[in-house]
Specification:
The chain is α+β, with helices and mostly antiparallel strands and 125 residues long. The protein is 38% helix and 12% strand. It contains four helices and four strands; from the N terminus they run H-E-H-E-H-E-E-H. The protein starts with a helix and ends with a helix.
Length: 125
């Protein structure tokens, strides 16, 4: 969960210039798929109630200093932002100004940090 720790540090550093949210989408490695051992015991969500329960479980087990939104069961956020298993975006005035690569390999918090640093410098001139 190193990427999550980096994301939390980013929130702490830039909360005065940006709003942050996390969107809980379909479970990337549900236990019923059998592809990863030792993960949290979360099965594929069959209802919005199960997805919300999994999101609450995440909040109980990870410190997240921003709102956690939950995607619908028709996976609107996951599909719109090609976000499985994870992805970073910056949206400014309703437009995407940064689209990160698909995680975990292309989940680059440092790129978001660099963008936000430039933005902070611009607004503080």
């Amino acid at each position: 969960m190193v990427a999550l720790e980096e994301f939390i540090e980013l929130i702490d550093e830039f909360q005065e210039v940006a709003d942050f949210v996390t969107v809980y989408i379909a479970e990337a490695h549900p236990t019923d798929s059998g592809d990863i051992d030792g993960n949290f015991d979360i099965s594929t969500h069959k209802s919005i109630k199960e997805r919300i329960k999994a999101a609450l479980f995440l909040l109980e087990n990870e410190e997240l200093p921003c709102p956690l939104l939950v995607d619908s069961m028709i996976n609107e956020a996951k599909k719109s932002y090609a976000a499985l298993p994870e992805r970073l975006y910056i949206i400014k005035k309703g437009r995407i100004v940064y689209e990160g690569g698909v995680g975990p390999m292309d989940y680059k918090v440092k790129e978001v940090e660099e963008w936000l640093q430039k933005y902070r410098n611009e607004i503080n001139k």
